[in-house]
Specification:
single chain, 239 residues, mainly beta, outer membrane lipoprotein receptor (LolB), chain A, 3-stranded antiparallel beta sheet
Length: 239
């Protein structure tokens, strides 16, 4: 295991503890400019997300109506009622974003795909990086706002759905993940600097409860505005 990855896995609770758990759920309060830009304002306000820890499956509930939820995997996304009736579904959903720009509206199923891929990425890092197919290289350290952070370039396997194949993670000296850079390929390659903060210990796992996603310049600097997405997590539980 990469030395930096080993350090951050330990700082977040350790792989032994992680492997004792199967799912995570959390209540989300979300804001930012993205949702209105994509024509989906309010759909994901005040939802509960549930994610599998060891394979890529995610559900948001409620989704568009009190008795509906999303069902996301990399190869299929669906909207279902709570009794299991499939209302609509889409196989190979990533292909549906071909030609999209940052301003292209999303369908309900496209929103479910984006939200599923994004939240699985956020909720399972850094432990997901131990799964087969990931490649990592430590980059030069980064200075920001008087802080000194180590950086890890991560190349994702094509079997998993996420924002972009190449991403960069930033860690405090004690190993906590504090920034996450990526390009949103399904939104015209929009750049993002994603900040994580307000960590709490949940059943032995360190979890950031505040996420703020800002634009990123070509030289890696983040811009103060617009706020693309904000996510606040509460009622976090593992099982």
């Amino acid at each position: 295991m990469n030395d930096l990855l080993a350090t951050t896995i330990k700082a977040h609770g350790g792989l032994q503890r992680w492997n004792q758990l199967n799912t995570v759920s959390a209540r989300l309060i979300q804001g930012g400019a993205l949702w209105a830009l994509k024509g989906q304002k309010g759909v994901l306000d005040g939802v509960v997300v549930t994610a599998s820890l060891h394979d890529e499956r995610v559900s948001h509930r409620p989704f568009g109506a009190p008795d509906r939820h999303s069902a996301f995997t990399p190869g299929r996304v669906a909207i279902e009622t709570d009794d299991g009736t499939v209302l609509e579904s889409l196989d190979q959903p990533r292909a549906s974003f071909a030609g999209h720009t940052a301003e292209t509206p999303w369908s309900t199923l496209q929103l479910a795909y984006f939200a599923g891929a994004a939240m699985w990425t956020y909720l399972t890092q850094p432990f997901s990086l131990t799964l087969p197919g990931f490649r990592m290289t430590e980059l030069d350290p980064w200075e920001e706002a008087g802080q000194h952070w180590r950086r890890l370039r991560v190349d994702w396997p094509s079997s998993l759905a996420t924002h972009s194949a190449e991403q960069t993670l930033y860690f405090t000296p004690d190993g906590l993940l504090v920034r996450h850079d990526y390009d949103v390929e399904i939104s015209g390659g929009a750049t993002a600097a994603h900040y994580l903060s307000d960590y709490i210990d949940v059943q032995g796992i360190m979890v950031p409860t505040s996420h703020r996603i800002l634009p990123r310049t070509p030289d890696g600097q983040s811009l103060a505005e617009p706020l693309i997405v904000s996510i606040g997590l509460s009622e976090i539980t593992f099982s």
